[in-house]
């Protein structure tokens, strides 16, 4: 896949990045004569995937309701490139009689897209909050003997969403579910993963214990902030990466490999950026050296690598307040970078992230929908990609006791 993602410099008629005029290959399969438009522009020209209710059998052309675009949700016939071969080689049976999907309230749109890809209906569940804030969960259908998947990221408000997930797990366990998998696209407590000078709790381990004790048998998470967080769980963890989704989108832009440099915004993200660069035809790597003086505070110190005249693609797992990535982008421009792109999986977007990201230092900010982006956080340079197909395929493989890693090979 690495060789096909980026056009070689010798075959590119222009070194300038251009936005693909046709639908992204993320949800296009030309070999079957299918072409599903996957991107749309709202009134502020923000590229987003539909956040309204949609059905699998909608026509390919986009429609508008209340001034917002509705894009057909991808079905199982329209796959990202990295999933096509995996689907063709799959041998297990997709028996959904004993598979149940339930969605929490944190990201119901993503849950609906996952269910649509899998050809299933979301399970019926009632979630309420009492006047004092207590959470009430009741299953509206039987899960006895079923393989249950609960989709709930711990995005803001993190504590409420985490508590809701725990109560959902407990409800399924008490209803005699055979297996319970917590699908957490964004695991928010993975940042507090180490103890310094004996004064900080390891919150990731605490949350891992809570999820396990609540009754979960397995965890499915996307791009954990710290890979060692998997070791805090006493249950199996399937850790999937969303890089292929972003890479598939970048491939549609016709980037010249000779103009590209991948940048890690800090030393801790070098491994992530190196893996990303390897898939982009072994693009050169640069590192922003910074020193952090406190939480959400960063100071850029130096740049390791050459970005002069290049198109710099900054890669990180999340954007919170955007302090680190914004200061890194400013340094790249000072060092002569022609354009700067930001790519991340989790769009946390705590204030003042939107102001920093929309200030003009980024050509484009590419994120996924593991976290729902509020309307107030849209800005013209923002692109949101869906990970529904990838998570849906992973859930099928977990349910069928098949390999998950082969999806990405």
UniProtKB/TrEMBL annotation:
This is Uncharacterized protein. It comes from Bauhinia variegata (Purple orchid tree).
């Amino acid at each position: 896949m690495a060789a096909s993602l980026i056009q070689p410099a010798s075959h590119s008629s222009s070194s300038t990045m251009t936005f693909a005029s046709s639908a992204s290959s993320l949800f296009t399969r030309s070999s079957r004569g299918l072409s599903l438009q996957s991107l749309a522009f709202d009134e502020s020209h923000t590229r987003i995937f539909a956040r309204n209710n949609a059905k699998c059998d909608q026509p390919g052309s986009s429609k508008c309701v209340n001034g917002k675009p509705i894009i057909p949700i991808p079905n199982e016939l329209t796959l990202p490139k990295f999933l096509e071969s995996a689907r063709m080689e799959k041998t297990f049976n997709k028996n959904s009689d004993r598979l149940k999907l339930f969605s929490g309230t944190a990201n119901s749109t993503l849950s609906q897209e996952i269910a649509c890809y899998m050809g299933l209906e979301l399970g019926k569940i009632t979630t309420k909050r009492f006047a004092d804030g207590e959470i009430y969960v009741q299953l509206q259908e039987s899960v006895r003997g079923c393989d249950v998947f609960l989709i709930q990221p711990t995005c803001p408000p993190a504590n409420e969403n985490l508590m809701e997930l725990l109560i959902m797990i407990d409800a399924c366990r008490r209803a005699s579910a055979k297996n319970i998998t917590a699908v957490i696209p964004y695991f928010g407590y993975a940042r507090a993963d180490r103890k310094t000078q004996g004064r900080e709790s390891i919150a990731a381990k605490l949350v891992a214990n809570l999820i396990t004790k609540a009754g979960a048998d397995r965890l499915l998470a996307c791009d954990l902030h710290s890979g060692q967080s998997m070791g805090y769980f006493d249950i199996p963890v399937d850790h999937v990466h969303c890089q292929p989704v972003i890479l598939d989108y970048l491939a549609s832009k016709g980037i010249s490999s000779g103009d590209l440099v991948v940048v890690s915004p800090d030393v801790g993200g070098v491994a992530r950026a190196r893996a990303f660069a390897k898939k982009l035809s072994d693009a050169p790597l640069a590192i922003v050296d910074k020193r952090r003086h406190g939480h959400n505070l960063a100071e850029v110190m130096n740049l390791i690598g050459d970005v002069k005249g290049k198109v710099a693609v900054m890669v990180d797992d999340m954007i919170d307040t955007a302090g680190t990535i914004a200061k890194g982008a400013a340094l790249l421009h000072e060092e002569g970078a022609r354009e700067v792109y930001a790519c991340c999986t989790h769009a946390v977007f705590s204030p003042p992230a939107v102001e920093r990201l929309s200030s003009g230092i980024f050509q484009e900010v590419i994120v996924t929908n593991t976290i729902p982006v509020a309307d107030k956080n849209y800005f013209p340079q923002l692109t949101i990609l869906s990970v529904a197909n990838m998570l849906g395929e992973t859930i099928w493989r977990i349910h069928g006791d098949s390999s998950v890693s082969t999806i990405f090979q």
